[in-house]
Queue: 4 jobs
Job 1
Amino acid sequence: MKGKGSTKSENLARLKDIISLAKREPSMSRREIAKELKVSRNTVDKALGKASIFNEETELFRDQRGDILDSKVALILKAIDTKKVSEAKLRDLAVSAGILFDKSRLESGLSTSNVSSWCAIVAESHRRKPEEKGLENANPARTGETVDVEPQ
């Protein structure tokens, strides 16, 4: 909170300004407070960290974080309508679908990685006979077969 050449009284005044603005405008983020008062966000964090009322709010958020985030997710999902989906770019739709799929699996206690799929593929490949695997037509360098090459 100490700036170059700042006196104790200037630092105290800055601390009071930060706390006062945070109380007056509780919806302002710490970043917005820092911009408004022309101080660093770190200065705002330190100032509000010293104000016990904001420590209680932080603890309350930590205790209710799941409910708060769930309500924000519901708000966002309600805002997505057919028109917005039809106007969205294919890439955005694909990314969104993938994220929602992963979150759904995570919530269901299922794997969100492809490890189980790969394990099944590898296990199946070890159970099959070489001729069933199609190795007779495979690249010899990858199957361990040797090929005589005559110099040209």
Job 2
Amino acid sequence: MKKKPVRKRVYLSGGMEYAQYEGADWRAEIEDWIRTILGHSVFNPNKESAKFLRKHVRGDFRRLKTEDTPRFTKIVARIVDLDSKEIARRSDYVVCYWDRSAQRGAGTKGEVTIARLFGKPVYMVTEMRPENIPGWILGCTTKIFGTFHELKQFMEKEFVHVQKRSSLSGRKRRT
């Protein structure tokens, strides 16, 4: 019986709370590329958080931080659980965009740490110099890229060629 290849899954990590448009622009672009070119499934926290918040919050979620901190904290704790379980249990690797918003916030730091703990590769895109990135974050990172273009080139070699090799090895040879 022929085994069906397992589809890879990626978690898109990066600043949200302090990022312009909550980091949705870069995530949408790379998500489309990963789905189209690599055929991998994508966990996009912008989309998943929006779904969660539509179910559980009315009005401006971010305003709760100052207007009702205990409620805000409970909601964020549930999002942290959702995202952490996604990385630990379902995602095969993490793409992390490290910029000032990621550096200022906390979620990205936690996400790459969880990925490291569970042995998931973390591919980081950043324009920052290594000396300006916390050592902890560098220690959680598998490979660093200066641009998304460089990341895409790497991923095509890493994943597309692997898929082609595994599909070729599954074919029966003619004798």
Job 3
Amino acid sequence: MASGSTDQLLKINSRRQLSYTCKKLIKFSRHIAGRIHMPDTAHQLQQIYMAGFELKTFDRFPKCVGVVRDDCIALLVPGPDGLQMLGTPGWQIGEVMGVLTEVGGRQVFQAKTEMVEATPERLEKLRQFREELQNLMRTSH
């Protein structure tokens, strides 16, 4: 993809795409962790997928997998203890992730110039999303 172009979000909607993404993550995991024993990232992704989360890849972040449910989104990367979240989960705004911030004294999810109000309902959804995803990553080692 040419530099300066917008990121393209690709849905992982088949076993073949899921397998390909898992293989990319496993290869990267081995690269950063050497030959030490690591949790099986493919198994972790499978458990996350089976729990009803959608998996996505990003051209701009080839070593990350996006995990989405109910408009909440998190980026996962392989680490020495298996998959881990990169940064803080946010809110999906179109094809990008809005981060929680404050504008004019009110909380919003913002992605560049686009904003979505951070209502108590959305904040609770995001809290539950983060908690369930963290639990899945811990228990699927």
Job 4
Amino acid sequence: MYEDFHVTDRWTGEDLHCRWKANIVAIATRHADAVDVRFDVNNRPMWIALPCLAWVEQKKRTGKVITDYLAAQTAGHYLKAMVEEGYDASREIYTMSVEEVLEHLEAILAEARETHSIPTLPVLNGSTQETSFIPTQSRQS
């Protein structure tokens, strides 16, 4: 869905190829309470910062957590919407609010319900790699 996609810049008409690269806990890199999701946009880095409070709020509201996969999809959905709405696609970092994270997350989940799938990450060399779920005592309940 949003780990590798194309979007057209509203102002320039340029085709932007956006590819997910990594999720990084921002406390380690810039002392921020966020998760930074990196995309390459036409081979230039772009970061979408998701505040950690969004994970807390999602858990409070639904009882469910935001996984790494969902964080990447949410950031990609936000990036695509920003470019389509005419935001500056040349900026290197954008910060989402908690409400924006939850809105885009809900849009991702609604889209996944329609298509019956959320792709797995990571994407290496253009192909999605298989990941396996290892059940643990805490995950089985």
